[in-house]
């Protein structure tokens, strides 16, 4: 079954390590078949954005997902984890969750979870949900 993406003019997304940009004047539907990893540009951390441990961590996990090579990015991942925990030890629970997701092969879910590090509103909402649930 193909993944259906609705993409706006000028928006880009990644299929594996290839960036695809829509160059048209209207919204288009794109069908991506097969088992290639797909990531929207809003979830992508570029090399130019690697200015914090949180971004370096997201980038390492993103590369694991897009390349399919988890072990090949272990060094970058653990360096980013160490730097993040030195800077913000309160994120140890989130890092533990991400580790569990990676061990279970859920790299896409780990990327989505790590967005909390870059968005304080998501972090607060997530904390409230954990307190309620």
Description:
- The protein is α+β, with helices and mostly antiparallel strands and 133 residues long.
- It is 50% helix and 16% strand.
- The chain has 5 helices and 5 strands; from the N terminus they run βββββααααα.
- The strands form 2 sheets. The chain has a 3-stranded antiparallel β-sheet, with no helix packed on it. Strands 1-4 form a two-stranded antiparallel ribbon.
- Strand 2 (12-15) and strand 3 (18-21) form a beta hairpin.
- The mean pLDDT is 88.
Which structural class fits the helix and strand makeup? alpha+beta
Please give the alpha-carbon distance between the first and last residues: 33 Å
Q: In percent terms, what proportion of residues is strand? A: 15-25%
Q: Name the helix and strand elements from N-terminus to C-terminus, one letter apiece.
A: EEEEEHHHHH
Gross morphology: globular
User: What is the overall pLDDT average?
Assistant: 88
Low-pLDDT stretches are: none
Question: Could you tell me the number of beta strands?
Answer: 5
Radius of gyration: 16 Å
Q: How do the strands line up in the largest sheet?
A: 3-2-5
Quick summary of this structure?
The chain has helices at 53-67, 74-87, 92-103, 107-118, 120-132; strands at residues 3-7, 12-15, 18-21, 28-32, 38-40. It has a three-stranded antiparallel sheet with strand order 3-2-5, with no helix packed on it. It has a two-stranded antiparallel ribbon with strand order 1-4.
Sequence-ordered SSE layout with sheet pairings:
Layout: E1 3-7, E2 12-15, E3 18-21, E4 28-32, E5 38-40, H1 53-67, H2 74-87, H3 92-103, H4 107-118, H5 120-132
Antiparallel strand pairs: 1-4, 2-3, 2-5
Helix pairs in contact: 1-2, 1-4, 3-4, 4-5
């Amino acid at each position: 079954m193909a993944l259906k993406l609705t993409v706006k003019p000028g928006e880009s997304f990644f299929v594996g390590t290839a960036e695809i940009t829509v160059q048209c004047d209207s919204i288009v539907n794109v069908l991506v078949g097969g088992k290639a990893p797909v990531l929207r540009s809003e979830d992508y951390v570029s090399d130019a954005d690697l200015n914090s441990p949180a971004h370096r961590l997201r980038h390492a996990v993103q590369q694991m997902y897009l390349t399919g090579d988890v072990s090949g990015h272990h060094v970058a991942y653990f360096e980013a984890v160490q730097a993040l925990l030195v800077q913000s030890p309160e994120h140890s629970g989130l890092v533990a969750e991400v580790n569990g997701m990676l061990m279970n092969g859920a790299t896409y879910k780990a990327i989505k979870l790590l967005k909390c590090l870059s968005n304080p509103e998501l972090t607060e909402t997530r904390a409230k949900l954990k307190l309620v649930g």
